[in-house]
# Entry
Amino acid sequence: QVQLVESGGGVVQAGGSLRLSCAASGSISSINAMGWYRQAPGKQRELVAAITSGSSTNYADSVKGRFTISRDNAKNTVYLQMNSLKPEDTAVYYCNADLSIITGLRRRYWGQGTQVTVSS
# Structure
């Protein structure tokens, strides 16, 4: 059993900042890539940022220079620091982890999502 628990969403004015956290727990053997996706109303879910076990990162063009993804391997936690937020960043943000459990099975897991609302 694996759980991804997100926190840190909320309402912020344009130009403000938020920090999202996602902690993975359960029968985890190893965690490979972790990432954040978002889905706005009426739109498809899209990748925001991802980070590998070796801390290589990848960002959507729309958030480069404003968002920073990081991870704490000891805590099985991934973070997303969001600065200079824009109304178009409003969405439900989902944590994703590509991990292996103790039986050896490897698959991707999703968090429940956290709402980020940026007011103009």
The mean pLDDT is 97. The longest strand covers residues 28-39.
